[in-house]
Amino acid sequence: MLTQAQSTIASSLHLSSLSFIHGGSSLCPLSLSFRHGRNTTTSCAASRRAEKKQEEKGEEGEGLVEILTRVAEKSGMSARERRLLKVREAKRQREYERTHNYPQWAKILEDGCKEDEELRAILGDSIGNPELMRKRMEERIRKKGRDFRKKETGSVLAFKVSFRDFNPLDSHIWIELYGEPSDRDVDLLGSVIQSWYVMGRLGAFNSSNLQLINKAMSHNPLYDSEMASKVMPSSFHDISDIEFQDSWARFWVDLGTADFLALDVLLNCLTVLSSDYLGIKQVVFGGRRIGDWEEGMTNPQFGYKNFKI
Fold it and tell me: 0.85 exceeded by the pTM?
């Protein structure tokens, strides 16, 4: 039983310092001091008990936060004090990792989000997580290209048009871009070619029935539907999927009975597409092999893409 003097001393003990050195899975308390007036008593009992318990359990790789929490329980701290200690230590570790291990490129992206709404929308809740930020950026570049600010990515230069032994029943049409297309560019160009083929398949390019081409709309012209129905049909026969290798795209066509009006319509579409959305360097009708095209190469890792018609 404690004497009255011992009880008085015990009740006035004050926890003055608790310092730790954490290395691997071991814990080494430097000092656990209790102060009463001018007299100071140092005790390592709590640290020895914690170390002994850890050795008995054979725990390895335990975090500093967990060690602090467990030793704090042995030191008689309240649940609230232990919780605050754990929160402070976790925050300190995050700040340390952010300062010393956070990639420089991630810091640049975070700074850019302050002024760029589109960049902020792309990163979203990934800010603070470099790996997730990287995935978001790679996905955005793959889908829409590298230009964040420019909405229209066309070319002010007119593209070159040439013919190389073009056979309308069995030939390739080649399109050279100014760079490797993104997924967005592939979809854009593919949709234009697909629409052109659908119109040709339905007989849109029939120069035998151009009744309104030279008529003035101000005089309410008449259209002879019966004559249009008697005109010989003119339609595409077949087309292949569109293939992409690096900056080149190609597709095979069989124009069937369609007139060469189809080529004029295609070039008109590509002209606006090139100037406003997707820069085109040249269009070649015919030819077996152009540029660095490699027959049979279908590996996406080497720049191959395709669009299903």
Answer: no
